[in-house]
């Protein structure tokens, strides 16, 4: 990538982050809340994109990593009275450990078998959250009261239940993840992941430890997904088994496909559009998922590379 | 001279068929060796066992004095064995330079190392072209450049001249001579002209076994080889 491409990349992503920050001041309450939620969920999508988009690992079990972060943060807050910072750390750690263990086993398989194995592990995780209903309260979920969600900062304590604070916390996490992803995909490691996706055997015969690279990709992907889950728990004060269900494994796949797999901005664009698509459809009709299904079929037929992927293929070749 | 590669009693079967059957084989440092034989003789399986693409069933492989029999493929590559694919296996969406950079990137080589390799194979003027857009002969050269980008001690070429024009073959012969100055070359080849021009020694395989081994002159005059392979 040339120097001018680097400048354009920095300008574009900087402008997006600045634009999102500015929206805090102008958006009406409802959309302000939606955007905070979309930013957190697109962190999940960005994590998924590392595995699926860049490394070509089609996982159907990422809900378990999101939920590992969610419960990893919520359980210690709810049951042990932990404060927010160590709970966030526990959420990240839970996601990392789970991702490494699952990847060690699942990466022994390829393609469809990998999809099935990740799906099975995720279902086990989901059923486990239901089995321990005493602690997790199952589908009903844990509600973290306002008092449990105060964040200690150098200047004093702030409540994450406040809409503005929540927005800025979501924005900070989103920005951080965007920068990490940008850095990652342009690094040697990221380029090796893409090459492994394209031709695994070739990379092995160039001396790359393909298994170790995929394992590292899954670890990063799982940890970012868990960061989204942990943030969701403390920002929106709720952790339920629903987030560990198959639906939350399919959603990041759809978000990434819609926005554009293996693009840095695709996960955000996909999450945003899908959120409003479901939101709008459900205000007109009860079977709103039908509308989503039709939208996806049209997308696959006419924009198989997703929105940002199509823009990159047609006009902006330099997009990371 | 010390043996760079020393293979003892190597065996591999698929189902009931012994694709490689108790093969003993040594390769001296600095040699250009050709491996020939009819289709299905076990040549590709044999080199796949050496570079680790196919697991060894029986026997040992010593490379540079070390036992590499159980090493995974990527570690053998790091030890200095490079393999170029029979069916061109390059990254069509990347530029020629990026393809070769992937070979050196793991060891921290930068773009200038890749350009030096491209110059060596005569592709430097196409460095920024998309590899998938190149003519077939040039794609074969990218494949070889990726092997060279690993700076191997042993370069294994699996039917490198297949599908090349006469002029391209002539250029290829000159290139291999140049490469062989500091790299040992093991070549699977069907084109007898290339074999006779390049190889210092030739190994002939048939039905998973080594039928004959010797200088081009000896192989040409070997009655068994003539019967089995040259069809004379």
Automatic annotation (TrEMBL), chain A:
One of its GO terms (molecular function) is branched-chain amino acid transmembrane transporter activity. InterPro entries: ABC_transp_permease, LivM-like. Pfam families: BPD_transp_2. The keyword Transmembrane helix applies. It is a multi-pass membrane protein. The chain crosses the membrane at residues 34-51, 84-105, 112-132, 167-185, 206-233, 253-278, 290-311. Its main location: membrane. GO terms for cellular component: plasma membrane. This is Branched-chain amino acid ABC transporter permease. It comes from Nitratireductor aestuarii. The lineage of its organism: Bacteria, Pseudomonadati, Pseudomonadota, Alphaproteobacteria, Hyphomicrobiales.
């Amino acid at each position: 990538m040339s120097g001018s491409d680097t400048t354009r990349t920095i300008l574009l992503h900087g402008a997006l982050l600045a634009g999102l920050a500015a929206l805090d001041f102008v958006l009406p309450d409802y959309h302000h809340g939606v955007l905070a939620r979309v930013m957190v969920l697109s962190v999940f999508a960005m994590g998924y994109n590392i595995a699926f988009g860049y490394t070509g690992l089609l996982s159907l079990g990422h809900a378990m990593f999101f939920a590992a972060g969610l419960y990893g943060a919520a359980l210690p807050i709810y049951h042990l009275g932990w404060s927010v910072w160590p709970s966030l750390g526990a959420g990240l750690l839970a996601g990392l450990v789970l991702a490494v263990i699952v990847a060690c086993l699942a990466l022994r398989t390829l393609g469809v078998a990998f999809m099935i194995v990740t799906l099975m592990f995720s279902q086990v995780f989901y059923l486990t959250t239901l089995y321990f209903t005493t602690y997790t309260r199952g589908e009903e979920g844990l509600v973290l009261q306002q008092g449990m969600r105060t964040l200690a900062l150098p200047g004093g304590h702030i409540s994450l239940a406040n809409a503005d604070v929540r927005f800025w916390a979501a924005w900070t996490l989103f920005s951080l993840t965007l920068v990490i992803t940008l850095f990652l995909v342009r690094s040697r490691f990221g380029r090796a992941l893409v090459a492994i996706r394209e031709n695994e055997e070739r990379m092995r015969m160039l001396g790359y430890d393909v298994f170790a690279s995929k394992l590292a990709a899954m670890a990063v992907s799982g940890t970012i997904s868990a960061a989204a889950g942990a943030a969701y728990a403390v920002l929106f004060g709720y952790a339920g088994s629903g987030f560990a269900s198959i639906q939350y494994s399919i959603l990041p796949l759809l978000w990434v496909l819609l926005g554009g797999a293996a693009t840095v901005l695709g996960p955000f664009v996909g999450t945003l559009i899908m959120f409003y698509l479901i939101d709008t459809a459900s205000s007109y009709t009860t079977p709103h998922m039908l509308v989503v299904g039709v939208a996806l079929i049209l997308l696959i037929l006419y924009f198989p590379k997703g929105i940002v992927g199509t823009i990159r293929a047609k006009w902006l070749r330099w997009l990371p | 001279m010390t043996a760079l590669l020393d293979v003892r009693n190597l065996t591999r079967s698929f189902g009931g068929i012994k694709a490689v059957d108790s093969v003993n084989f040594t390769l001296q440092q600095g040699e250009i060796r050709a491996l020939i034989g009819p289709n299905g003789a076990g040549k590709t399986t044999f080199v796949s066992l050496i570079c680790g693409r196919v697991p060894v069933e029986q026997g040992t492989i010593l490379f540079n004095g070390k036992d590499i029999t159980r090493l995974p493929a990527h570690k053998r590559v790091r030890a200095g064995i490079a393999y170029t694919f029979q069916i061109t296996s390059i990254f069509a969406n990347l530029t020629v330079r990026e393809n070769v950079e992937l070979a050196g990137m793991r060891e921290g080589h930068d773009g200038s190392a890749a350009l030096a390799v491209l110059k060596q194979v005569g592709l430097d003027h196409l460095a920024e072209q998309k590899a998938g857009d190149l003519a077939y002969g040039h794609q074969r050269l990218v494949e070889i450049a990726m092997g060279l980008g690993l700076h191997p001690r042993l370069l294994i070429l699996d039917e490198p001249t297949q599908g090349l024009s006469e002029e391209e073959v002539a250029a290829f012969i000159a290139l291999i001579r140049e490469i062989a100055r500091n790299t040992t070359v093991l070549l699977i080849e069907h084109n007898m002209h290339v074999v006779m021009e390049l190889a210092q020694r030739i190994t002939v395989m048939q039905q998973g076994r080594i039928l004959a081994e010797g200088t081009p002159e000896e192989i040409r005059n070997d009655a068994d080889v003539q019967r089995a392979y040259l069809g004379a």
